[in-house]
């Protein structure tokens, strides 16, 4: 495999080589489950789903872990607002998250560990840091001592002096240094808490991922991923904690996706311009959302607007119509192909496959991989213009579409059962027309139109396509 990945740690593209042949250990930071996930959460969810799919299509067994942060200040505040408990808030929004990723055609992770199920591992991890002199307790809180980890800042490429200058005035006086960060928080009255050697409390945000990643994937991961905003402080702190305990690299490849803007403005709570996945799925088809997310390189910013979504809708329609037309012609295809024509098509499709692979191997360049998919669309459209087409030619194209889509996940978000329903309605309409039951025929046409289906009369019979 010639896959190259841009490693945030080194700021270079590096040839990918897994720790264990044929297996990949990948950890991606998941949501803090205090609310519905938004469009910014959807980008890493979709992109790393594609990374996982591509690795699997390249014959890797991928152990893919995405955590749930189910205890946090935000969950505590949400529970107070709703008059319920933190576990009930977490369960509600974990269920919502699972429904959203199903709606987006995202394959479920190998494992979704929850923080609250791993208190023993988290406390033991913190104790190891304390025992090694990397952490200290003050007032029931435990802090990581950054001065013991000289490489602190290596992921975000900041040095200790720069980080010190960035510390706000009024830093917690219990810290030895403004750069030190919390590992364990003493519980305030009425808060959810767990017993620990330092008193009742709960873990800080950063320590959770270090403990869970180590439990399920070992001391060193192949790939650690997340949004650009997690580089610092979250991933930087993970590195410091984990490598202080193990003495080994936390991950060999660090991957971070870019930001999403809304109408050319940064998405933020202060601007009130966030969009939830729940909301998007009520008005935008999953295939369109996936296409939009993959239409720019994952490290580049992405702008969400009515215009970019309309462009994505048009592009998805072209792909779906082409695949639908190929499937339709299969029932009318001849069994004996023209050998020369078939060989030529095989050569062109093989070249397109190589193009797709080359682009995905180049740091998961999904925009150019999608371009390869449109090369298939062009081949299909040319083929379908011929009056006689063989089954072998159509199946060659259809297989290529399906192989590409196992990675991109555009076609599979379309309900395939709908095809059979549409065909059945068309048969009913044909029978109604034969029986001169024009009213019934018109009703069926209207029903299909409401489903976004356009009927067209062709020399080969009635065919349909999606609007």
TrEMBL record:
Keyword set, alphabetical order: Aminoacyl-tRNA synthetase, ATP-binding, Coiled coil, Cytoplasm, Ligase, Metal-binding, Nucleotide-binding, Protein biosynthesis, Zinc
Residues the record lists as binding ATP? 269
> Major place of localization?
cytoplasm
Q: Which reaction does it catalyse?
A: tRNA(Cys) + L-cysteine + ATP = L-cysteinyl-tRNA(Cys) + AMP + diphosphate
Domain (Cysteinyl-tRNA synthetase class Ia DALR) spans 355-418
The record's subcellular location field reads:
Cytoplasm
Cite the SUPFAM superfamilies for this sequence.
Anticodon-binding domain of a subclass of class I aminoacyl-tRNA synthetases, Nucleotidylyl transferase
From which domain of life does this come?
A: Bacteria
What does this protein need as cofactor?
Answer: Zn(2+)
Which segment of this protein is annotated as the motif 'KMSKS' region?
Answer: 266-270
Can the keyword Acyltransferase be found in this entry's annotation? Answer: no
Q: Which Pfam family, any one of them, does this sequence belong to?
A: DALR_2
Instruction: Supply the EC number(s).
Output: 6.1.1.16
Single Gene Ontology MF annotation: cysteine-tRNA ligase activity
User: In chain numbering, where does the motif 'HIGH' region fall?
Assistant: 31-41
Coiled-coil stretches = 309-362
The positions annotated for binding Zn(2+) are 29, 209, 234, 238
Instruction: Please give the family membership noted in the entry.
Output: Belongs to the class-I aminoacyl-tRNA synthetase family.
The name on file for this protein is: Cysteine--tRNA ligase
- Identify the taxonomic lineage of the organism of origin: Bacteria, Bacillati, Bacillota, Bacilli, Bacillales
């Amino acid at each position: 495999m010639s896959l190259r990945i841009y490693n945030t740690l080194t700021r270079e593209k590096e040839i990918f080589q897994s720790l264990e042949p044929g297996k990949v250990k990948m950890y991606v930071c998941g949501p803090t489950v205090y609310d519905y996930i938004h469009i910014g959460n959807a980008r890493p969810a979709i992109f790393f789903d594609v990374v996982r799919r591509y690795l699997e299509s390249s014959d890797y067994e991928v152990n893919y872990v995405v955590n749930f942060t189910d205890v946090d200040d935000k969950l505590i505040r949400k529970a107070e607002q709703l008059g319920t408990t933190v576990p009930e808030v977490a369960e509600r929004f974990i269920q919502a998250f699972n429904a959203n990723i199903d709606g987006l055609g995202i394959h479920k992770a190998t494992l979704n560990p929850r923080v609250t199920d791993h208190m023993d591992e988290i406390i033991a991890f913190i104790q190891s840091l304390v025992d090694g002199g990397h952490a200290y307790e003050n007032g029931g809180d435990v802090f990581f001592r950054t001065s013991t980890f000289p490489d602190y800042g290596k992921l975000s490429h900041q040095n200790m002096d720069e980080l010190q200058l960035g510390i706000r005035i009024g830093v917690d006086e219990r810290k030895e240094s403004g750069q030190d960060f919390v590992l364990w928080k003493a519980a305030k009255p009425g808060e959810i808490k767990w017993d620990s050697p330092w008193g009742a409390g709960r873990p800080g945000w950063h320590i959770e991922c270090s403990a869970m990643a180590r439990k399920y994937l070992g001391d060193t991961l192949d790939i650690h991923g997340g949004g650009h905003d997690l580089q610092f402080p979250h991933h930087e702190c993970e590195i410091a904690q984990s490598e202080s305990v193990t003495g080994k690299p936390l991950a060999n490849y660090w991957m971070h996706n870019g930001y999403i803007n809304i109408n050319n403005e940064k998405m933020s709570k202060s601007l009130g311009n966030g969009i939830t996945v729940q909301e998007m799925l009520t008005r935008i088809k999953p295939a369109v959302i996936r296409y939009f997310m993959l239409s720019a390189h994952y490290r580049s910013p992405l702008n969400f607007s009515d215009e970019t979504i309309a462009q994505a809708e048009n592009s998805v329609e072209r792909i779906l119509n082409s695949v639908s037309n190929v499937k339709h012609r299969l029932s009318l295809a001849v069994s004996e192909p023209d050998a020369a024509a078939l060989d030529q098509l095989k050569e062109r499709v093989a070249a397109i496959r190589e193009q797709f692979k080359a682009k995905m191997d180049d740091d998961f360049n999904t925009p150019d991989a999608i371009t390869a998919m449109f090369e298939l669309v062009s081949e299909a459209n040319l083929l379908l213009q011929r009056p006689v087409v063989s089954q072998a030619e159509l199946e060659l194209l259809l297989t290529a579409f399906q192989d590409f889509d196992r990675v991109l996940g555009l076609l599979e978000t379309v309900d395939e059962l709908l095809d059979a329903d549409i065909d059945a309605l068309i048969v009913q309409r044909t029978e109604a027309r034969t029986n001169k039951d024009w009213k019934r025929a018109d009703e069926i046409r209207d029903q299909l139109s409401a489903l976004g289906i356009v009927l067209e009369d062709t020399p080969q019979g009635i065919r349909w396509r999606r609007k």
